[in-house]
Protein: Nucleoside phosphorylase domain-containing protein
Organism: Pendulispora brunnea
Amino acid sequence: MPPHAIQDHMLILAAFPPELEPFSERYRKDARAIGVGLVTAAHATGALLASAKPAAVLLVGSCGVYPGRAPAAGAVVVATRTVLADAGVAQDQAALPPPMATHAPTDPAWVERFVAGGCLPAIVAGTLGIATDDRLAHALAERSGADVENLEAFAVAAACAAVSVPCVAVLGVTNVVGSQGRIQWRDNHRTVAARVVEIVERVLG
C-alpha cells in the first residue's frame, strides 16, 4: 500500500501501553500493545493480522544502540531491515540452522518516508533477551551487523512478511546496549516514547 491516508488503514503496535500513551486519540484507536519479547510479539501480531486485516503495520517502541554504532541515545530510527540475533551464536557456542528465517524485511516506501521525516536508518537485531554484558553487546553487533537491539521488531516483521502485509518499525534509542542499558532505559524510555510519537504523527499527517 502506498503511503497515504494511512491512519484509516495502518495498525500501530507497541510492546507495552506506555509506548502508546503519547498518541493522540486520533491514532490511539488503531493502536495495540502486543507484549514484550519475540514469542509473545509474534503470537499477538499474527492474531491481530488475522482479525484486523490491516493494510500495513507500524511498530513503535524503544531500542538500545550497540557500542560503537550510530545513532546516539535520544535519536529515533527506522528499521531498514531486521535480523534475528542470538547470544550463543555471537559467542560461537550455538548455531541457527539454515532452514530458520534469520532476516525479516520492512517496507522500503515507508522507510523512505520516515527517513524524510527525521528518522535515521538502522538495522535492527531481534534477540530473545536483552544483552546486559558489554562484551556480549560488542559480539552481537559484530556477528549480526545490526546497529540497534529490540525484542519485538524481528517478530513483528516476520509475522507481517508471512502474510505479505507491509511493515515498518520506528524506534527511539534509549540506551547503549550492555551493563548500563537497563538503568538508561528506565531513565529515558518515556521521553523517547514521546519523541517517537511526535515523529510518527507528523509523518502520518
